[in-house]
């Protein structure tokens, strides 16, 4: 019955926690680290909050149901979820990872996990041959992030999962950009879904959190062991805030994605915009594949202006978005990847990843799309004027 309901209905059903004692319509915030045991020998379901807490459980059950998985896990941040997932690997194991993976994931692979003997190869995951060639006898996981950050490259989840199964390895998918509203990696064959719930799931730039959903009992059991052992669990109040964020996820991300589509189309025809990266645009190289595995281009797009000076002029003349790192919030967030999310790459590495010095990333919020477009028109006019000034002064 539950699966025949629309996603927006399920979001509400899965997060509604009528309290049997009081009838409260919301899951109570169980701020308790420990739990009284009624029996000397037989302990109850809960004993200590690192191991389990009823508020966190409600969130973990909700995300598991929404992603269509066996069991969900809430962590103190997206990076805590991703790091704990990589602890499923052991010394001598190998991971195939996208070249343009999220910077924090790049950092733990290159600077932490290597010290413990966990190896990795970076590949262009949009190219299946490159993935296949990187697989070794000790490969344990193929890691996918689609669409990728900040150039929105699309990887074929079904094909990667098939390839992984043929080589007896797992597929992990970072589903932060799409959320289960638009993309369900487990249904496409993935084994584990990861989220920075700091982004769309929380949705209000007020929580740092991570979620993981296991597609099999085997991974679920092992991940539960690691979550409790490593202890990077999400706090109780933050668990409650995520349950609250989830309730409006569908309306928020759909409205933002509709606006993002319009804004991408607007930027695509502006003479001062060299390129727009958005999988909802027909000329995006991954558009067809994306439409096959996800139901929307999402709420994040990037666009390339001429150079750093143009990007600076644009940022200095917009009024509505905040200029900040992060994404997936009610307010639009404009960011400059070369100095923010991808500051750790040198210029050559950035160029290779397609991150030009004029690239800006926009996470579209809930402002009216017409207001945003008008704001961007004004900022682009300033970019244009500034270019004329430079040309003239160069005469
Ligand atoms: C933000 C982000 C992360 C890291 O999550 P935190 O909550 O910041 O730890 C991982 N993957 C993607 C795609 C992200 O955008």
TrEMBL record:
SUPFAM superfamilies: PLP-dependent transferases (SSF53383). Keywords: Amino-acid biosynthesis, Lyase, Methionine biosynthesis, Pyridoxal phosphate. Its EC number is 4.4.1.13. Coiled coil: none annotated. It is an enzyme of class 4 (lyase). InterPro entries: Cys/Met-Metab_PyrdxlP-dep_enz (IPR000277), Cys_met_metab_PP (IPR054542), PyrdxlP-dep_Trfase (IPR015424), PyrdxlP-dep_Trfase_major (IPR015421), PyrdxlP-dep_Trfase_small (IPR015422). GO terms for molecular function: cysteine-S-conjugate beta-lyase activity. Its cofactor is pyridoxal 5'-phosphate. Belongs to the trans-sulfuration enzymes family. This is cysteine-S-conjugate beta-lyase. It comes from Sporolactobacillus kofuensis.
